Amino acid sequence: MYPYVSFFGKPYSSYGVFAIIGLAAAVLYSFIVHKITKDKKDFFDRVIYIVYCGAAGGICAAILYQLTNIKGWIKALPFLFSDFDKFRSYLSFGIVFYGGMFGIFIGFMIYSRFFKEDTREWLRTSVPGVPLFHAFGRMGCAVGGCCYGIPKLSSGSYNYETGLFDLDGGPFVHGACIYNARIGHYCIPIQLIESCGLILIVIILILYLRFGKDKKAYYRPMGLYFVMYGVLRFITEFWRGDLIRGIWGPFSTSQYISMIVIPIGIYCLVCPTEKSIFEKWYNGALYKKDKETDKDIYKEKDK
Q1: Are 199 and 258 in contact (CB under 8 A)?
Q2: Whole-angstrom Cα distance, residue 236 to residue 255?
Q3: What is the distance between the alpha carbons of residues 214 and 216, in angstroms, rounded to a whole number?
Q4: Number of domains in the chain
Q5: β-strands 164-166, 157-159: how paired?
Q6: Does some domain include residue 174?
Q7: Burial 186-195 (b: 16+ CB within 10 A, else e)
Q8: For residues 80 and 293, which has the higher predicted lDDT (pLDDT)?
Q9: Which helix (H) or strand (E) covers residue 289, if one does?
Q10: Residue 173 falls inside a structural domain
Q11: H/E element holding 144?
């Protein structure tokens, strides 16, 4: 496990490096799709679309993380004005992917409303890019030591200089577990297990896009992704060992969210596009009512 990697003598977060690689892979996928589908729109517009979705995803992921840490905020607030260092000690900063996943599709709506562009085909074909990015992110989690699985065996000694546990010559892999220097334990490699599941989801989604007959079912790839990832995440959470993600009763925060995501996905799969509530929201961004005929008029660049 290497929480940091060095480039030109400077340390960088391993997770950040893998996230950048994942983003590059998602953009490359979008470029390939752009060429294969012979999209008449400029690819730079698609890149801007990705930026909007990514920014919204990052913001929502950070917000959801703070919501999962509500207990920390309750403990911290009394010290906000009296002891700011203690106030900060109760808080932590990070991201929760489910927040990012919802944020990406919020970004899709924001982009459509701001630019008055029909981007439903982009939404349909770009869905595999989300789990592709996420798969590399989970690899970064495994290398960085966060989001780890259930600890099975302790080993190593604490290094006060690095703040990590040294392995002291022991094997990096023990049985089916990998060593986590952040906590000094061999843990179930749940990050890599989820990463493999995400790659499988990417393959299934690409096959669905390639061989699916209804090309106007814009929200079905999203629904298929929601169902598959919801099931994957619900199962893998049972083998997570980090408590920071939030445990409420028998399930984690992400498992409760999975219970919401899966029905939404099923709805997207079975509901015809023209009757979908997402289509109605989308039309609200692109269309306006004619005052005399009460019919929808497409607002193309406000012409």
Answers
A1: no
A2: 9
A3: 5
A4: 1
A5: antiparallel
A6: no
A7: bbbbbbbbbb
A8: 80
A9: strand 287-289
A10: no
A11: helix 129-144
Closest CA to 13 of 93, 71, 89: 93
H helices of 150-290, where?
Answer: 190-211, 220-236, 253-270, 277-286
Q: Residue for token digits 């911290």?
A: 76
Residue 187: alpha-carbon gap to chain centroid? 23
Structure pTM?
A: 0.82
Q: What are phi and psi of 247, to 5 degrees?
A: -120, 125
pLDDT tens for 206-254 read: 999 988 877 788 889 999 999 999 999 999 999 888 766 667 778 888 8
What is the share, in percent, of the chain residues with pLDDT greater than 70? 84
Q: How many residues does the chain have?
A: 303
- Could you list the residue range(s) of the whole structural domain that residue 108 is in? 4-150+188-298
Residue with token string 């002891």: 83
User: What is the distance, to the nearest Å, from the Cα of residue 162 to the centroid of all Cα atoms in its chain?
Assistant: 29
Model confidence pLDDT, tens digit, residues 46-67: 888 888 888 888 898 888 888 8
In a domain, 217, yes or no: yes
- Is residue 189 within 8 A of residue 119, CB to CB? The reply is no
Could you count the other beta carbons within 10 Å of the beta carbon of residue 12?
Answer: 13
Q: What is the DSSP letter of 118?
A: -
Instruction: Decide: 242 and 254 in contact? Cβ < 8 Å.
Output: no
The answer to whether 182 touches 112, Cβ cutoff 8 Å, is: no
Residue 212, in any domain of the structure: yes
Q: What is the mean pLDDT of residues 80-101?
A: 79
- CA dist 45 and 98 (Å) reads 26
